[in-house]
Design goal:
This protein is mostly helical and about 90 residues long. Helices cover about 35% and strands about 0% of the residues. Helix 1 packs across helix 2. The chain is globular.
């Protein structure tokens, strides 16, 4: 299959999303290994869908790792970034 350009791929994805016929809002999930471009793809797809007049809500669960998934194992070997303001204690 010819992969085409990124814009063509985004157009095909948007067409696939648009072809879903359900009575509730369509939900799209993008999965992949760390640094694969999931967030970039989701952001770009959201732009295309909005340009087509679709309502889009972008949500992320970047901090969620399914137990046993390869991303969980990979994340456990990476150094953790500080996620909160350090607290100081007074003796």
């Amino acid at each position: 299959m010819d992969q085409g350009t990124r814009d063509e791929m985004l157009g095909r994805l948007a067409e696939a999303v648009g072809s879903v016929a359900v009575v509730h809002p369509t939900r799209v999930a993008i999965d992949g290994p760390p640094a694969a471009g999931k967030t970039t793809l989701a952001d770009e797809l959201a732009v295309v869908l909005r340009e087509q007049g679709r309502d889009v809500i972008r949500a992320t669960i970047d901090d969620f790792l399914f137990p046993g998934h390869s991303a969980t194992r990979a994340a456990s070997t990476r150094p953790k970034a500080a996620t909160s303001t350090p607290t100081t204690t007074t003796p």
